[in-house]
Write a structure and sequence with these properties.
715 residues, alpha/beta, Arc Repressor Mutant, subunit A, Tex N-terminal region-like, Nucleotidyltransferase, domain 5, 5 domains, five-stranded mixed beta sheet, five-stranded mixed beta barrel, 30 helices
Length: 715
């Protein structure tokens, strides 16, 4: 019987209660989203978080896939008439895919091999005689019996060679041999790389790996991915294996039982089996295992960075003038209203070669005054520092914040179908400037329109498993969108599509309905949208906000299914719901246990109270301004031992990158992040964190800057 109680297996692996896993799986199977389960079904899951719920789903899929493979293998062997009760029991009992495949290997249909050809020549009995290593007859006399010119066996040596081919395959397919070999490969393999002949100059960026080796188990994910990339690009050759003598000694102990003629033949077959079959197969396995491990780590780093970027503090609803800087082509300028709508656009030329300083300054001053601009966003790409210096010298009539904004992904957005749909009558330069301004106002709302791989916070994003990467990043975007919540009357369809239970088609329907019928007046009104059924409403309603609705709870994270609970709370206090939300003393007077029902427990009640305290609160931090050192503009301005301000732009397993305003991010190696050992940079620093860094070294020709955070703190 194939395993079906997945909940028990997953609970054991994750250290959870079986009921938690069972209830979570039931909810997921019923179409509930991870954000919905984590936020609004805490009683069922015993307050599992999104990561735990996601892990349960992944493990369930793993077990389902294992059982699908198991069923296929059982059917395949049964069709061959070779499924014994003992073999069936072993196949059903295993919980490892590698062990399952090892059991199947001798029965797996193969293309022609040297062994299968030898078997066709009738050499299997000879192979069996040799493999038994009894030596009770002269080997050449026995081999002579299998010489058959018509079958392609011309002499005794050919007979023995064919028999060895069969033995080599037996050794390779032995479950015991494979287990021991796999264990030694996993424990003691060395990954070695060398440069491909005559590729030294072309592959210079991989110079560190031209003659490199280290234990595979200790090789960090970023190094493995770098070597694999070098190999894929044709600059490196990689080899993964333990010490060959040690491996052969192990195989000798497992296969040889004597020292006669037959044992000599077996030993020849074993060595051939290892070099021709086992070693390449185990290397392929190790590559797959460590590539998957490296992929997962790189994807995890990417997802953490993406989450931090999406959850960056928003400036909020303010009038913004945004500049996409440039030299020869000028600076594209746009003005946006509080909702991010385009009010004005033109081009100014404050930088060389035109250097129209006075005209550009006059244009800026007039626009800031005319549109009551509250903040100026300046892209941090080419000419960014020069444009920022120009703007900061401007004497505006009222206070205006000047902020440098990351341009990563703006060009991708500006050329996308989303941008063309939003601004069909404007070119890519206008769209790019709009994106820069909007991502200052609300990074999350704007960055959901850009492919996460294009926003500059990944590590080897083009080398990892693309389907896993896409799923992880999409899950991260969805998690962030639902954590913040979405104002249904102003959100783009790209933002709405990431709301729990909505998706692209329904998001389009919501926007079209809003455009036709005007703003939604309540959450309940959403059910008038075509295809917005009860299931979608259940999943989505708690994450959608309707500010200014008659029911103040519509602007909060309290789910409509809990409105009756809040009504009871207000009634117990002798006031309206609105008054209950304003009066902390009234809320403190409530005993939450009085409101527990068979469907509503303390976790939900505590969430409701937190939400009543700060309805629709934004979980993101407050916006904080930042300025680079105005004396540092180029690589040439940097000198060792300087301590300068910077912003963390990317975090990897080996450290982080910091923008210090010279158009080239500097690297802070993991050893230079803190005055203590750091296993994961994300534990001590965050994306967009403002830091002081010390310049350790500058390589102008290679455009490399080495920085230290810990030495800056000690300076």
């Amino acid at each position: 019987m194939i395993i079906k109680n997945y909940a028990a297996l997953i609970a054991r692996e994750m250290g959870l209660k079986e009921t938690q896993v069972h209830n979570t799986l039931e909810l997921l199977r019923g179409g509930a989203t991870i954000p919905f389960v984590a936020r609004y079904r805490k009683e069922a899951t015993d307050s599992l978080d999104e990561l735990q719920i996601s892990k349960i789903g992944e493990l369930h899929e793993k077990w389902v896939e294992l059982d699908r493979r198991r069923a296929f293998i059982l059917d395949s062997i049964a069709e061959q008439g070779k499924l014994t009760p003992e073999l069936e029991a072993k196949i059903i009992a295993t919980s490892l895919l590698s062990e399952l495949e090892d059991l199947y290997l001798p029965y797996k249909p193969k293309r022609k091999t040297r062994a299968s050809i030898a078997i066709e020549k009738g050499l299997e009995p000879l192979a069996l005689f040799i493999y038994n290593q009894e030596d009770n007859e002269n080997l050449m006399t026995v081999a002579r019996q299998y010489v058959d010119v018509e079958k392609g066996v011309s002499n005794e040596d050919e007979a023995l060679s064919g028999a060895r081919d069969i033995i080599a395959e037996w050794v390779c397919e032995s479950k015991r041999v494979r287990e021991k070999t796999r264990f030694l490969f996993a424990k003691e393999s060395v990954i070695a790389s060398k440069v491909v002949k005559d590729k030294e100059k072309e592959g210079e960026k991989y110079e560190n790996f031209f003659a490199f080796s280290e234990p595979l188990s200790k090789s960090p994910s970023h190094r493995i991915l770098a070597m694999f990339r070098g190999e894929n690009e044709g600059y490196l050759r990689l080899h993964i294996a333990p010490d060959e003598e040690k491996m052969l000694t192990l195989l000798k102990k497992m296969t040889l039982v004597g020292a006669g003629e037959t044992s000599e033949q077996v030993w020849k077959a074993v060595k051939d089996s290892y070099k021709r079959l086992l070693q390449p197969q185990m290397e392929t396995e190790m590559r797959a295992i460590y590539k998957e491990k490296a992929d997962k780590e790189a994807i995890q780093v990417f997802a953490v960075n993406l989450r931090q970027l999406l959850m960056s503090p928003p400036l909020g609803q303010k009038r913004v003038l945004a500049l996409d800087p440039g030299f020869r082509t000028g600076c594209k300028l746009v003005v946006l209203d509080e909702q991010g709508r385009l009010l004005h656009h033109e081009t100014i030329y404050p930088n060389p070669p035109q250097a129209e300083y006075r005209q550009s300054a006059e244009t800026l001053k007039n626009l800031v005054h005319k549109y009551r601009v509250e903040a100026i966003a300046i892209g941090n790409g080419t000419a960014g520092r020069e444009t920022e210096a120009f703007v900061r010298k401007m004497p505006f009539e009222h206070a205006v914040q000047v902020i440098s904004v990351s341009e990563s992904g703006a060009s991708v957005y500006s050329a996308s179908a989303v941008a063309r749909e939003e601004f069909p009558n404007h070119d890519v330069t206008v769209r790019g400037a709009v994106s820069i301004g909007r991502r200052l106002m609300d990074p999350l709302a704007e960055l959901v329109k850009v492919d996460p791989k294009s926003i500059g916070v990944g590590q080897y994003q083009h080398d990892v498993n693309q389907s896993l990467l896409h799923k992880s990043l999409e899950d991260t975007v969805i998690s962030c969108v639902n954590k913040v919540g979405v104002e249904v009357n102003t959100a783009s369809k790209e933002l709405l599509s990431r709301v729990s239970g909505v998706g692209p088609a329904l998001a389009r329907n919501i926007v079209e309905y809003r455009d036709t019928h005007g703003p939604f007046r309540s959450r309940q009104a959403l059910q008038a949208v075509p295809r917005f059924g009860s299931k979608a409403f259940e999943q989505a309603a708690g994450f959608l906000r309707v500010r200014g609705a008659e029911n103040p709870l519509d602007a909060s994270a309290v789910h409509p299914e809990s409105y009756t609970v809040v009504d009871k709370m207000a009634k117990a206090c002798g006031c309206s719901v609105e008054m209950l939300m304003r009066d902390a003393e009234k809320r403190k007077s409530l005993n939450l246990k009085d409101f527990i029902t068979d469907k509503v427990g303390l976790p939900t009640l505590k969430d409701i109270m937190q939400e009543l305290d700060k309805p629709g609160r934004d979980p993101r931090e407050q916006f904080d301004t930042f300025e680079f050192d105005q004396n540092i503009n180029t690589l040439q301005d940097l000198k060792p031992d300087m301590v300068v301000p910077g912003v963390v732009t990317n975090i990897t397993n080996f450290g982080c990158f910091v923008d210090i305003g010279v158009h080239q991010d500097g690297l802070v190696h993991i050893s230079q992040i803190a005055n203590k050992y750091v296993a994961n940079p994300n534990d001590v620093i965050k994306l967009h964190q403002q830091v002081m860094v010390k310049v350790m070294s500058v390589e102008i020709e290679r455009k490399r800057i080495n920085l230290s955070i810990k030495d800056a703190e000690n300076a």
